[in-house]
Amino acid sequence: MSGEHTAEVYRIAWVAGTDTLHGVCHCGAERTARDPVEMWEWMLAHPVGHDREIT
Amino acid sequence: MTGTTGQISRTAFARNQWYVAAYGREIGRELLARTILNEPIVFYRTQDGGEAVALADRCVHRRYPLSAGRLDGDTLVCGYHGFTYDTTGTCVSVPGQKRVPRTARVRSYPVVEQDSLVWVWIGDPESADPDAVPRAAHLADPAWRTVGGMETVECDYRLLVDNLLDLSHETYLHGGYIGTPEVAETPIVTEVDEGAGTVRVSRHMDDAACPPFYARSTGIEGRITRWQDIEYHAPCLYLLHSRIAPRGVLPEPDGSDPNAFHVEITYAVTPSTDRRVYDFWCVSRDFAQDDEDVTAFLHDLNHTVVMQDVDALDLLQRSLDTEPEGYQELSINIDTGGLAARRILTRLAAEGEPQPAHAPAAAR
Ligand code: FES
Ligand SMILES: [Fe+2]
Ligand SMILES: [Zn+2]
């Protein structure tokens, strides 16, 4: 039933017990944020802005 | 868009995609009219092969709805002056004269019938790939017992997508039916597969109250482990894999899961007009297969839940329609999946716009 995955998978986990989101781009770049809009903007801009990582 | 605020954009449809038009059982020798992506379509089934046919629901003569006509064998006779069309939409006879004008044809739409659903393709017929129809095999699998229905909601279809991708609303809108406090409290994991056009949202509750929907159908007393794994195949098909077990009971190391109850909740979200959406819903279970009380209970309770959503979305749309241009929304963690779905829908809509160098539809 599950479709196959392609190579371009983005993942955002809401870290248990916190208000923090942890995002992993398909290229492996990571970031934490507290705002899903900001997180998607960062991810989908791949690779632009990956260097100015905020943790 | 900056910060947490934003706004939903103008309705745009992803045309080069498959959409559920009807359950297979709804299409027969009676003419069925549905409007999909603003296009009026008439459906019927042929006599011999039993193939589903989809034609534009406007006669070329004076645009009378063909769905108000009648079938003559496999041809469709307009109810106004009798223009008669074959299953390809070609007009094969007109009253009073031998010559049928060459341009006398209505559009026919590609159709796929699969997993008890009838899917239609509205966009460029050249791009219609039957293999790209997403599967919902449980709907036609005897190992699952399925109940379902369809409601129309007077809203932008994206409000329904938003609703389905954020199940935290179960706690508030469906409290006492399918919602418990743990749904809104439990963090989610969101995954977007850009190439496949899918969004997955998982919420695994280790220790949750059992809502009536599951308590009465499974007979579990006490607290549960409740998993919700959403798989949204944009734009139309939404699958919610729901796993219910007594608290602490997990799948076996080999992956089998004999001590849990599984429910597949299926939705098909088909835009009808800019302000109307067809909301197809099904509940399939792998337990108490022959228990008709459970069947009736799950049907009626889920129908109640769907109507709670219908009323809320009708209200939300009416309210949004009174907002001044440029109103703002505010998104928080629970919206991570819904935001991802909106983005994919915007991309698919842009890809479906007629353009000289045709962008490929989402790879499957
Ligand atoms: S409108 Fe259909 S035959 Fe005249
Ligand atoms: Fe709901
Ligand atoms: Zn990246």
Automatic annotation (TrEMBL), chain A:
This is Uncharacterized protein. It comes from Streptomyces boncukensis.
Automatic annotation (TrEMBL), chain B:
GO terms for molecular function: 2 iron, 2 sulfur cluster binding; dioxygenase activity; metal ion binding; monooxygenase activity; oxidoreductase activity, acting on paired donors, with incorporation or reduction of molecular oxygen. Keywords: 2Fe-2S, Dioxygenase, Iron, Iron-sulfur, Metal-binding, Oxidoreductase. The keyword Cell cycle does not apply. CDD domains: RHO_alpha_C_DMO-like. It comes from the Bacteria. Residues 18-120 form the Rieske domain. Pfam families: Rieske, VanA_C. The keyword Oxidoreductase applies. This is Aromatic ring-hydroxylating dioxygenase subunit alpha. It comes from Streptomyces boncukensis.
